[in-house]
Write a structure and sequence with these properties.
The chain is mostly helical and 358 residues long. The protein contains 16 helices and no strands. One of its GO terms (biological process) is mitochondrial phosphate ion transmembrane transport.
């Protein structure tokens, strides 16, 4: 029975090479040689044909980073109009009283083209963020999983998701910060600049390089909890959907059915992401608009009620955004035939220790 589950163990996202090497050494001493046509060799051959690269290889990480660029860059750019109104509601709630009022005021003042303000820094900034967020998440998930070992990685998988996503987002926000600062200036300060080419030299001339990185700490406050929720909630929701909702095992689902599960889990995760990260998002929007203010000063001035302005707009935006990002990211993996391990299952060795197998 143990030999039949060995191929599945290798596809586990928390597969630990050192642990597996030890198992293989035991197997070589205790099991006779198998014929080339055995079930295990056929499974290995089919896996080699199915995937374009090995799980955890350099090519795998590069293509995951590309998937992050496509998923984050395109989705954030597509939602620029909603993001613009949300930012304006946060920095000037007296003028922009609601989502619909915000759209109406913006169109009356700037025309329909005014809704696209800030699209260039959004596309560039969130493409770089997506590269680091998804690419480094895969790196840290495997790194931390191997450090824990197969059994502990399964038992502590939620903590593993949280740690890997937080580590990835730390670097992703450093890549995002300059373009986020320029975007907020363009969107929330009428007359300051209409394009990225106008905003960057003006910001640098006024405050130097600090203008682009003074918001990185509030970005960490906003994005790290957001990303931790985004990845951990998504991973556990996918696991729960296949266990309690989907009427058949993941292995029997078509690629299309698996992508539907991905979209649903992404939307559920997005709602929680928006709530967790919204107060810090309000601080970032106000901080990047004002000169000489600190995050603590802005937070004290906004107060508890003020930091929740625009939450409904952000739930709609982030829920849709997160669902689309996961759907696009998973679609990129399908297109490039990357390994997509199923939700983790309890290792056979742990089942034996817990007395769950005969």
């Amino acid at each position: 029975m143990f030999s039949s589950v060995a191929p599945l163990a290798r596809l586990n996202p928390f597969y630990a090479p050192h642990f597996q090497l030890a198992q293989d050494g035991v197997r070589k001493r205790t099991e006779p040689a198998e014929a080339p046509t055995s079930r295990r060799s056929l499974a290995a051959a089919s896996a080699a044909e199915e995937y374009s690269c090995a799980y955890g290889s350099g090519r795998f990480f590069v293509l995951c980073g590309l998937g992050g660029i496509i998923s984050c860059g395109t989705t954030h750019t597509a939602l620029v109009p909603l993001d613009l109104v949300k930012c304006r509601m946060q920095v000037d709630p007296q003028k922009y009283k609601s989502i619909f009022n915000g759209f109406s005021v913006t169109i009356n003042e700037d025309g329909v083209r005014g809704l696209a303000k800030g699209w260039a820094p959004t596309f560039i900034g969130y493409s770089m963020q997506g590269l680091c967020k998804f690419g480094f998440y895969e790196v840290f998930k495997i790194l931390y999983g191997n450090m824990l070992g197969e059994e502990n990685a399964y038992l502590w998988r939620t903590s593993l998701y949280l740690a890997a996503s937080a580590s990835a987002e730390f670097f992703a926000d450093i890549a995002l910060a300059p373009m986020e600062a320029a975007k907020v200036r363009i969107q929330t300060q009428p007359g300051y600049a209409n394009t990225l080419r106008e905003a960057v030299p003006k910001m640098f001339g006024e405050e130097g390089i600090w203008a682009f990185y003074k918001g990185v700490a509030p970005l960490w406050m906003r994005q790290i909890p957001y990303t931790m929720m985004k990845f951990a909630c998504f991973e556990r929701t996918v696991e729960a959907l296949y266990k309690y909702v989907v009427p058949k095992p993941r292995s029997e689902c078509t690629k299309g059915e698996q992508l539907v599960v991905t979209f649903v889990a992404g939307y559920i995760a997005g709602v929680f992401c928006a709530i967790v990260s919204h107060p810090a998002d309000s601080v970032v929007s106000v901080l990047n608009k004002e000169k000489g203010s600190s995050a603590s000063q802005v937070l004290m001035r906004l107060g508890f009620k003020g930091v929740w302005k625009g939450l409904f707009a952000r739930i709609i935006m982030i829920g849709t955004l997160t669902a689309l990002q996961w759907f696009i990211y998973d679609s990129v993996k399908v297109y490039f035939r990357l390994p997509r391990p199923p939700p983790p299952e309890m290792p056979e060795s742990l089942k034996k220790k817990l007395g769950l197998t005969e």
